[in-house]
TrEMBL record, chains A, B:
Record protein name field: Phosphoribosylformylglycinamidine synthase subunit PurS
Gene transcribed to yield this protein: purS
Taxon lineage: Bacteria, Bacillati, Actinomycetota, Actinomycetes, Propionibacteriales
Alphabetized Gene3D superfamilies for the sequence: Phosphoribosylformylglycinamidine synthase subunit PurS
Record bears the keyword Ligase: yes
InterPro entries: PurS, PurS-like_sf
Enzyme class: ligase
Gene source species: Nocardioides daphniae
Length: 84, 84
């Protein structure tokens, strides 16, 4: 069993209201030092057997068509070494 | 400038309806081979200067009090080597 992780984050030029809300809440909770927060999504996809290059290419297609909105979001696909 | 990443995922024993929805949609889009999908959140926190152990401990506290719900979610804090 192998786990492939897809990280989906808002593009840098896109406003991120969720991240801004967290950034605004941190000082009110007594946390300092953070200059920016971006919030995105993380998907863990489980596959039977080994992860091949074909599977990674297919996951990139899943990320592009279903998991992310390519107009406003970037994604990154990687194999998780230690699956939880 | 350094980026600290907080990954927040539903605990394994918690039902994850968003992940199940993605899992159900994949075959309809022609994607096979995926046996499970879990959906969580990813936060990127930007700090000025270097990330010390104190900062990482503070981020773990932020994750516990603001970024995650420890009753139903696990989190993981790590320093991002190549900040986007």
């Amino acid at each position: 069993m192998a786990t492939v992780v897809v990280d989906v984050m808002p593009k840098p030029e896109i406003l991120d209201p969720q991240g801004k809300a967290v950034l605004g809440a941190l000082p009110r909770l007594g946390f300092g030092g953070v200059t920016d927060v971006r919030q995105g999504k993380r998907f863990e996809l489980t596959f039977e057997g080994e992860v091949t290059d074909e599977i990674l290419a297919e996951v990139a297609q899943m990320a592009e068509t279903l998991l992310s909105n390519p107009v406003i979001e970037d994604f990154e696909v990687r194999v998780e070494a230690d699956a939880r």
